[in-house]
Structure formats: C-alpha cells, structure tokens
Amino acid sequence: MRRLRGLAVWGAALTCAAMLTVGAGAAPAGTARDPGAEPEVGAAQETGVAEAAGPAGEADLSYHGSAVMAGGRVDVRLTPRNHGPADVADSTVRLRWSAPLAAGEQRLAAGCARTGRQEVVCRTGPLVADGVGEQIVMRVWLSGRPAEVTMALDTVWGGGAVDRNRSNDRQTVLVLDTGDAYFF
Questions:
Q1: What is the pLDDT of residues 52-101, one digit of tens each?
Q2: Are 15 and 114 in contact (CB under 8 A)?
Q3: Which is nearest to 112 in space by CA: 74, 84, 140?
Q4: CATH topology of domain 56-183
Q5: Is 92:109 a contact under the CB 8 Å cutoff?
Q6: How far from each other are the two terminal CA atoms of the chain, in whole angstroms?
Q7: What does the domain layout of the chain look like in residue ranges?
Q8: Which end of the chain has fewer CB within 10 Å, C or N?
Q9: Is 144 exposed, middle or buried (0-12, 13-18, 19+ CB in 10 A)?
C-alpha cells in the first residue's frame, strides 16, 4: 500500500512537471496574453521554468522497442535514445492504449506510474547525447481482452531540452492479440 501511495505522489509530480513545461509559454503573473498567440522565444526563461531546470539545450529523443499481446496481456519493452546534441538529465515518456487498462495492479517498471484509465508514464533517467538509456519493461492487462489495440508513445517532458524533431518521439503501433512481437 505504501508503494502505491508513493507512485501516486510521483505520478502527480510528473503531471505537475509536464504542465509546467507545457505551460512554459504562459505570460508572467500580472500580464495579459492573447490565447491565440504563439509563445515567444525565451518565454520559458520569463516564467522561471528554465532556471529551475538549469540551462536548456537541444536534444532529439526517440523510443524503439516492441509490444506483444496475448490474452489481453501486453508486454512492452522500449529503449529511449537521445540523438543529441545535449545531454538530458531525465525525461518522461507516456504510453496510451486504445483500450482501458484492467482494474487492479499492473506490472510496471520502476519509475513508471499509471496516470489514467488507459495511460502510463515512465521516467527515462539520464540520457547522454548520442546514447541510449535504460530499457523500460512492463506488463499491462487490458479490460475485456480486445483482439487488437493501438499503443501510442510520446514525450511528455524532455528535461527542459528543446526537441525540434518531434516526429521520432511520437509513435503509434497496432498490436494484435497473436503473441507476435510488433516493433516500433
């Protein structure tokens, strides 16, 4: 029970960090901002987010791995990679399934937390430039034993780094209930 509370707190912290990063384009307190306007370059520095995380560099994150589904159980293995040029102290990847996760305990990797009916987020740990991170391995059970499911992956938080190539850290893979590995 204590571990579940710890994961819940950790998941809430991840959500707050993601909202801070996503909200980095918000105007400083006491100023008006046009909701339809694009965020200005340097807006993160105005809000203090970049100062809290240290100087932001540029990094290119991606994820590669496999998913296998059998009998409503999905085994996922994914390896984060940073194509550089800057190191990333930590980042967060989100996995979403098109079917709800089954109620009860899931077998998640250390550093992962369930954040919704169909969603799990995981820390990648440090990612050096032009290097691979630790493999993330998890097993989840889906409600209703679907014959197929789509699994979407994307970066929620990149450690404050700018990622100009978002195409390789956002993926969707169709996984059929065949026991075969589907690679992404």
A1: 344 569 999 999 999 999 999 999 999 999 999 999 999 999 999 999 99
A2: no
A3: 140
A4: Immunoglobulin-like (2.60.40)
A5: no
A6: 34
A7: 56-183
A8: N
A9: exposed
